[in-house]
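name: query_chain
kind: protein
chains: 1
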Amino acid sequence: MSQEQPSRWEILARERNARVVLCHTPDTFVLIDIARMADRGIRALRNRLLISLSPDDVLPLLEKYNEAAINLNRAVEAICQKAQIQYRTPRAITRMMESKGNGNGGSVEQPEPEEPDTAPEGESTLL
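structure:
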């Protein structure tokens, strides 16, 4: 009984930084292609930062990418909610939202705590 050697793809799938995605819809194929190219582009930007690219050129692009990721998270959360599928916001997205000051761990906005009414009785605080 001989054991078959793993394929190149099976070996790559075992890598720590690899993700295997089964695409069940054309929408997922599009996102995987975008993510693959984004990975290459972001890696190139970070490798060239301070060598041939200035932070003023790179940081706005990375911020725009992170904002798009946060918005995609919100869209997927709404889709899953409508489809009654449990969704957990990825930790990296939660950290991004916290660093932007929206650290509620998800995309559902929390109401601001109300300040107590400190006006003397009979006076209104409304303008």
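note: The first helix runs from residue 8 to 13.
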